[in-house]
Write a structure and sequence with these properties.
The protein has a two-stranded antiparallel sheet. It has eight helices and two strands. 55% of the residues lie in helices and 4% in strands. Strand 1 (99-102) and strand 2 (105-108) form a beta hairpin. By secondary structure, the chain is mainly α. It has a single domain (3-137), classed as dinb family like domain (Four Helix Bundle (Hemerythrin (Met), subunit A), Up-down Bundle). It is globular.
Amino acid sequence: MDAKSLFNEAVKEASGCVLRVEPEQLGNATPCTDWDLRELVNHMMNELSWIPDLLAGKTIAEVGSKYDGDLVGDDASGSWRRTLMRAMDAVAEADSQTTVHLSYGDFPAEHYIRESGADMLIHGWDVGQAINCSVIFDKQLAQAVFDFVKPRAEEFRASGLFGEQIPTQDSDSVQVKLLAFYGRKESRLDK
């Protein structure tokens, strides 16, 4: 699966959960123990907001604090849709080989697009857990994300941004393996 397809499919799956969030659920706990649901959705929107600028060649320093603060506002669904459309448009127009300046180095846009898609997919699942919504990944998408992240396990672990990997069985589905890679399992939150 190419990077742009991975991103588009991942954000569609994430949107399926984010667009179901009711205002009264924004204080719910999430598998991201440092964030409630509002903070998680805000984090996702923050990441999406950076995409047009970084794909346009801006550096982290040039973007600065432009997207700090509350991006969710009083209309989580509307804010999500607007932010997502800008990100999707930027991905659609991007040259996959152009250099993107990330906080940990310069990479081809293809790498950044895949990484962003992977993050949206996993956090979409997190949102689903917070609102008690079952999330079943598309198998081809889950496999493409797993194939992207698995060889980078040490790099991701060193970042400190991922939970402790949970052991899996060879017979487990790719979704179970992918979630375990990120330190997640279905029974993480009390239902």
